[in-house]
Structures are given as structure tokens and as C-alpha cells.
């Protein structure tokens, strides 16, 4: 990142400082001691992160702040009741701790899952977990972050150098630096409720209401509006909201840079005045969950209320090898169909926000093509079994 012109700040892991400094052994401490430890761990992390943020801001230079751990990690080391008490007594909520503090969350899957022969605790005296304990803890930590809009899972499907390259590429995507972009794949799918997802064995599902308001185009003569746009996102859960500004601009070789940044509620209200009058504000109910170590988003459009649901996953793998949740019926891929982008739907249904999308001839034709392609794919897979 430094070679790309960024100052890089690394926030140290607080837990190791506490454990090594106090000779703490989790196998022998009481529940009350666990509560006090984790509560002060979060408070110290927040102080350190805020200090690094202030220092980085004072430089006036593009900066990346990398935290070894995050404020949701302690939830994996406590019972649900203990965690709820921490939130209640500290007057914290999940949107503040999980969504507002971090632009992205990179979950580096432990070597205990997929690279077992390399798993060791010798490089960190504060770590004592067995292989099985490390596997279970990794899943608990990952579950704690479900719901963050930019949760990235970095698994052990490559060697260590390949893993580091994927980490660097992912950070570059977040900050808008030139690197290969991950593909955000979109599929027409059936909507299911949270109970159906949990009944299939999914432990954690988080649901949000997401509003996307598109702003006036960058210029009246924009040649490719579907790849050059900006919008505001208001994302809420249990009456707590986060606000972000997103922009995408294309450049040479049909490549694009996508940037997102957190903004205050006041900035959000100010920028709303630039809303594009030709587009309706898109409202979706979005469920986030993990299936087979892949982060899925199940979107159900509410405004425009057109009867459309889609399954979204960010991956560089071809659709043929994606393991889709069996409890959701996937009907076709529309990743490369601008007509199904929220940006386009906001305009198509501006004056008729309650029309079923299948009555739109353009959308129906593109969907039928996608559906036929999907059916051929399924048939080929069945014949090769």
C-alpha cells in the first residue's frame, strides 16, 4: 500500500497485550473476570483506533488504518447473555460497533481450517487453542461480523503468498486503488424468511432495511450512466442507521473504480438535496448469512415493489463452482445485465413503482435468456455427475 502512495497505520492487538501483561489464563478465570476483560478490551480498542484515526487524519495524506482485531471479536468469547449486558450497560449497539467503525472487515480464516499442517500457537504466547478449538472459535468470530456490508472472507484455498495477495487486492478494492476487482455476482432468486434459513442449519442471519438514493449524474453528457453513478445508502437495523456515499466511475479498458465512504447523518441530509429526480429511492430488505464459508446477501425489493428478489455474492469463481444454499431457488444470473441494476430499476419504475417486473418486456426477455442459460448449466452439471 505504501508503494501506491498510502500511509499505513497498524493498530496492535490489545488482547495479547492484556494476556501477556497480566498472565491471564482463560481456562482458569471466572465469568465475571471474562466480562471485565472483554469490556475493557473493547474500550481500549476503541481508544487506540480513534487515536490512530486522528493521527492519520492530521497527516493530510491518503491513509489506511489496519486493526488486528475489531470491536465485535469479543462477542465470540462470551455467552450471548454476557454480550447483551456489555451492549446494554455501555449503551452500545451493533450498528455502531460493527458497521460504522470499519469500512471493511477482512476475516482471515485460521490455518486450522484448510491448512491444518501449518497451524501453530508457537508464534503467539497468548494463543493456547487446540486445532478443534481454533476451528470453533474461527466460526464464532466470523458469525459475530455477519451483517457488515463489506465482510470479506479470505480462506486457505491458496498458499500463504496467494492469501497475502488476496488481502492486498481486497484492501485496494476498498480504497479504490488499481488492482483486480472482485466480481459481485447477482442472481434472480426466490425470497425466503429468516426462519427458513435458520432451519437449514444457518446459525446467524442479520436483516437490514437498505435505502439507496441515486444522485444527479456526474455530467449531463455521461456516455455510460450504468457504470458512472453515485448514490447514498441509509442502512438500518433496530432503529439504528449508518450512512455511506458510494460512487463508481469507469475508465480505460472498461474497468471501473468503486468507492464508498462513511458519512454523518447531517451530511446525508445535505447530499439528499442532490437526489436524481428521474429515479425513485430504492428500498430493499436484505438478509446476510454465510453458507459453506461464502457470504451471501438475499435482497427483496420493497420500493419499487416489483416482486423481485436477488441473491448476491462477491466471488471470482465461476457460477459453476459456487455452492448455492439449497433452500433458495436460483433462477438465472443477471450480473452483466444493466437493466437489473438497482440504478436502472430506480428509473424504469419511477412512475409505476408497483408494477410487477415480469410485465416489463425488456426485463422479461433478458430474464428468459438468463433462465435458459441457467437451465442448460444445471443439465450439464447433472449429466457430469
From TrEMBL:
Gene Ontology molecular function: GTP binding; phosphatidic acid binding; phosphatidylinositol binding
Every NadR/Ttd14 AAA domain range: 11-161
Entry-linked Pfam families: AAA_28 (PF13521)
The protein's name in its UniProt record: NadR/Ttd14 AAA domain-containing protein
Amino acid at each position: 500500500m505504501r508503494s501506491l502512495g498510502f500511509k499505513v497505520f497498524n493498530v496492535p492487538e490489545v488482547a495479547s497485550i492484556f494476556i501477556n501483561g497480566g498472565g491471564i489464563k482463560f481456562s482458569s478465570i471466572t465469568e465475571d473476570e471474562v466480562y471485565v476483560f472483554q469490556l475493557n478490551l473493547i474500550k481500549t480498542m476503541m481508544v487506540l483506533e480513534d487515536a490512530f484515526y486522528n493521527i492519520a487524519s492530521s497527516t493530510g495524506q491518503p491513509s489506511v488504518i489496519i486493526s488486528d482485531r475489531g470491536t465485535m471479536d469479543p462477542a465470540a468469547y462470551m455467552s450471548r447473555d454476557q454480550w447483551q449486558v456489555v451492549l446494554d450497560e455501555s449503551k452500545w449497539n451493533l450498528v455502531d460497533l460493527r458497521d460504522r467503525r470499519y469500512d471493511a472487515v477482512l476475516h482471515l480464516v485460521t490455518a486450522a481450517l484448510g491448512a491444518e499442517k501449518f497451524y501453530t500457537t508457537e508464534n503467539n504466547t497468548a494463543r493456547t487453542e487446540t486445532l478443534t478449538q481454533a476451528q470453533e472459535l474461527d466460526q464464532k468470530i466470523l458469525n459475530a461480523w455477519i451483517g457488515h456490508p463489506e465482510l470479506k472472507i479470505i480462506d486457505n484455498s491458496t498458499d500463504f503468498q496467494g492469501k497475502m495477495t488476496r488481502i492486498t487486492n481486497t484492501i485496494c478494492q476498498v480504497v479504490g486503488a488499481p488492482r483486480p476487482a472482485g466480481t459481485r455476482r447477482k442472481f434472480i432468486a426466490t425470497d425466503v424468511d429468516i426462519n427458513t434459513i435458520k432451519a437449514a442449519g444457518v446459525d446467524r442471519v442479520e436483516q437490514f432495511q437498505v435505502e439507496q438514493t441515486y444522485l444527479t449524474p456526474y455530467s449531463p453528457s455521461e456516455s455510460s450512466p450504468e457504470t458512472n453513478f453515485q448514490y447514498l445508502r441509509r442502512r438500518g437495523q433496530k432503529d439504528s442507521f449508518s450512512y455511506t456515499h458510494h460512487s463508481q466511475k469507469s475508465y480505460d479498458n472498461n474497468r471501473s473504480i468503486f468507492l464508498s465512504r462513511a458519512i454523518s447523518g447531517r451530511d446525508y441530509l445535505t447530499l439528499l438535496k442532490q437526489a436524481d429526480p428521474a429515479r425513485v429511492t430504492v428500498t430493499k430488505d436484505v438478509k446476510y448469512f454465510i453458507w459453506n464459508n461464502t457470504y451471501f446477501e438475499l435482497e427483496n425489493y420493497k420500493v419499487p415493489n416489483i416482486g423481485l428478489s436477488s441473491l448476491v455474492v462477491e466471488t471470482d469463481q465461476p457460477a459453476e463452482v459456487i455452492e448455492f444454499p439449497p433452500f433458495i431457488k436460483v433462477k438465472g444470473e443477471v450480473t452483466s445485465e444493466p437493466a437489473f441494476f438497482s440504478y436502472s430499476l430506480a428509473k424504469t419504475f419511477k412512475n409505476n413503482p408497483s408494477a410487477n417486473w415480469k410485465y416489463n418486456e425488456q426485463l422479461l426477455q433478458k430474464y428468459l435468456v438468463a433462465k435458459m442459460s441457467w437451465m442448460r448449466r444445471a443439465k450439464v452439471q447433472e449429466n457430469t455427475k
